Amino acid sequence: MHLVLIGNGITGVTCALTARQLRPDARITLVSAESAHHFSRPALMYVYLGHMRYQDIKPYEDWFWTENRLELVHATATGLDTAAKTVQLDNGSALTYDKLLLATGSRGRRGSWPGSELAGVQTFVTLPDLELLTRDTRQGVQQAVIVGGGLIGVELAEMLAAKGMAVTMLIRDARYWGAILPAEEAALVQRQLKAHHIVTRYETELEEILADENGRVRAVRTTAGEELPCQWLGLAIGVEPNLDLARAGGLETDKGVLVNEHLQTSAPEVYAAGDCAQLRDPATGEMAVEQLWYTGRQQGETVAYALCGTAPRPYRRGTWFNSAKFFDLEYQTYGRVPAEPDAGEHSFCWQHPTRDALLRINFRTDTLAVTGLNVLGLRQRHDTWAAWLQAAAPVTEVLANLGAANFDPEFFRQYEKVIVAQFNQQFPQHTVQLRRRKGLFRV
Amino acid sequence: MNSAQTLTAQAPLPEVAGTEKLLLTLVALGLLLLLPATFDADAQRAHWCFFAALGLISVGALGWAGWKYGRKPPGVQHNNLWLRASTSRGAVAWVTGIVLTGFYVILYWFSSPDDQGNYGPLNQLVHALDPFSQWLRNRPSDQWFLYGTFYTLAILVMGVRGLLKYRHSPYHLIRTGSLMFFQLGFAFLLPGLLLAFQRPEFYFSYFWPLKQDYLFPDTVGYLLKDGGPALGVFMVFWTAVISFVGVPVLTYFFGKRWYCSWVCGCGGLAETAGDPYRQLSDKSRTAWKWEVRIIYTVLGLIVLLTALLWVGASGAVPALQGITQPLSQAYGFAIGAVFSGVIGVGFYPLMGARVWCRFGCPMAAYLGLLQKHFSRFRITTNGAQCISCGNCSNVCEMGIDVKQYAQRGEPIIRASCVGCGMCSTACPRGVLNLENGPRDNRYQGSQLIHADSLRILS
Description:
- The complex is a heterodimer of chains A (443) and B (458).
- With 443 residues, chain A is of the alpha/beta class.
- Chain A has helices at residues 10-22, 44-49, 63-67, 127-136, 151-162, 183-195, 244-248, 293-308, 382-390, 395-400, 416-426; strands spanning 2-6, 27-32, 70-74, 77-81, 86-89, 94-96, 99-102, 106-108, 121-122, 143-147, 166-171, 199-202, 206-211, 217-222, 227-229, 232-235, 239-241, 257-259, 270-272, 277-279, 321-326, 329-335, 345-351, 358-364, 370-376.
- A five-stranded parallel beta sheet of chain A has the order 3-2-1-7-19. Chain A has a five-stranded parallel beta sheet with strand order 9-16-10-11-12, covered by helices on one side.
- The longest helix of chain A is centred in the last third of the chain and has 16 residues, at 293-308.
- The longest helix of chain B has 30 residues, at 285-314.
- In chain B, α2 (18-39) packs antiparallel against α3 and α13 (285-314) packs across α17 (362-373).
- In chain B, 62% of the residues lie in helices and 2% in strands.
- By secondary structure, chain B is mainly alpha-helical.
- Chain B starts with a helix and ends in a 22-residue tail after the last strand.
- Chain B has 20 helices and two strands.
- Chains A and B meet through α1, α2, α3, α4 and α8 of A and α1, α8, α18, α20 and β2 of B.
């Protein structure tokens, strides 16, 4: 059996590793136009910052692929014939498959602003994006503007500011990552941005990109009418699935490649997973298109079962989790914490008066069951929270045992006591007795 | 475009500010002043140059650390590590490595005093410390006192740099403070005071098999004789009890870190002066194989040698009489001098700061076996949060490819881990945590990620 996987990102690679376990005899080929080997996409920023080199962000050493008999093809897949079951490559050769996975990922959205094709204007998602950024900011960029108040935007801000550039962020919402973060969390992120000298313009969008005589960006005009001089402009307004190959093969697409719960596309023996896939019927509370490292990994694993035909299971995301880092501020979230609390839910938020530390627990007003957690500047144990959320544990039980979820390093300040005290003050009808703090010898 | 090289070679570097240049110039001037301090024919002027050099180096380095790290918000500050020549095996690193190696070669083989008390090329530097040595140890300085002074100063000055750089982490603050305390108190002042009181120069923070001769029959005999009935017995007792009882018990509860990155002087230098070089350790599988081959051989050698020496001393096997002494000297030369000094420290800027600890130290091997098989210590991976970014592996000075475990959701239980905690600090997703047990399910990974069982070792 020949499995051909288009894309060597986290989805394609997780699928390859899982498939290798399920079918030790299968021939598995990974095709990628972007890079010869799998690398960690979220780590691209650290190469630019100089924390690591490119070879350091490869999750596996190069011998790993040959020893596990995973064939790597560094080429672009340009054509797909689902009847003949072949994939055409730009190097002139073609691959015949028994099962095909499209894990083509996504690319940065460029918007439709006048001037968005100018030199010095780019997105930041792929390795070629990083190469372009590296070349383009090596010299002569004093001021940079970033459009978009999300995760890529804040990464770019950190990268450029670290090189001494003056960075301004244009953010459409009234606060940072307004669609995701509640106000207190966004305010803490804003504090980080300020401490690192990032200028923010909230409720401001890009109006026009202005060119110099060489066809390079020299300034932008905002919707507030302000003209900001800049020699580099980052478009961080989200990503869109790479659909070229799916379209070439005549697959049904919408925003992404349409797939059923087994991640099967409209064509026989062709599957799609990760950033480029769109679920036809997402479960309640789940997104049709998810462009995330963790969901990419989960979908890659799920689709391997379907490809190998060994006990295929429908894709279920399970309890949500995510994490990020905003400059020096770490963020972890478990379960669901919407930007504005849902009806029927309390949102308990503790914040240190001066330090950058915040903990928010959402719970049902009727059953007191916890529904979600946000922490900033604190580390919480994933397994413990997953169990609490799964069991719909009451917030009183969770707070009483909060120390069990503390994942901060030794000697770090422990806030469980003050957190519980504030909860008792805010919800005197549900008084909690803190039973468990973190100990030196206890996990 | 070949990404691997160009991305790093072409990456923009921020301009070095005038203040930073000035402070680094002070350090450079101080280092240059060591030349007249060594070679100036006028001994008095040479002495002044020596103290001016130490002053400039210390003030320049402390000022630089305060300027570079103190002004920024507390947090991980690893920008440009692989972009600066000094920390990425560039020209500066090679020069530093050659100078350090050269110093060790001179120290070990060309600075023994002759009949006139002349310490070779280091003579003036050694004698510049005479007043200080008289005050502390009630005797003139020698080449080892010069070395100890340099060593301690390096740990203290670069320790303050570490305190500033990692001030967001109480773990690093306390750990670095502990290393500075043990070096200054137990490995510098106390041995000096013991000499002042006519007692053996004894290091209470070094144990067999790192300080291999502390359990050799000759040293034991000498300690018992010169240490006097109370102190001498205590010194021998201390060595034996720590080596055979203290080490297993403490390692059971805390892992080998209680020694390697809290107490030990070699670890102390690596964690402070060697901190800028921690990313240079080799993470490859090949390096791991060599590590296992070499370090356990050294441990085997020293155990065997110690046993032979005792058998020889007992007189039970007369044939051993002529062999044990040369063997002991050969070990001292090859392992104690060449490996731990010349390679261990001289190659800091090229191979990272823990070359000796990783490949050569028999104490680390002994602690490592205990840590792997009889300890509660592990580094726990936080569920499925790993993004395989590689920051943990990058900062591991022992060359452990930490992400191989983290991306599988597995705990990290490795003999070589010295528990410096830097992987946990550098992780941008809060995935890694150093924990002391319990031992039940110590190898149990997270249920939230399905570990691929594909091999990472053959």
